[in-house]
What does this fold into?
Amino acid sequence: MSNKLPLATLIELAQSKTDDATRRLGQLQSAHTSAASKLDMLLQYRQEYLDQLQRQMNEGVPAARLRNFQHFIGTLNGAIEQQRALTQQADKRLDHGRSDWQHNKRRLNSYDTLASRVRQQEILISNKKEQRDNDERSARQFYLRSASLAD
It folds into this structure.
């Protein structure tokens, strides 16, 4: 029993760490999805704004309005680059979180495998003991029958 206690404790700790890593991985996946979505939204908005500028250029645009468009596009490009950097950071965090989860899951699986081997060994020992007890009982019964026939 004392051999099972440390292993059970290790399994509980590994399960807890794996659960925590799973939660973190979900949060990281959500953050990555959000960052990628914002980047896509900014890219789409920039494209729509450029399309609008192109349509207005065909009709003729005053110089002041053109400068405003260019300034806004420059600001939008800056925001896109910042969001792209945030998305890359989210990618790295997600990769690290995935690696951490895999490490914890492998550790838990190792402990589970070890526990399974211990249980199989205990079953084998129990079966051998039961077989020995049955053999002793049969031998005793045979001896008692032989002794009663001899009398």
Observations:
- The CA atoms of residues 33 and 87 lie 9 Å apart.
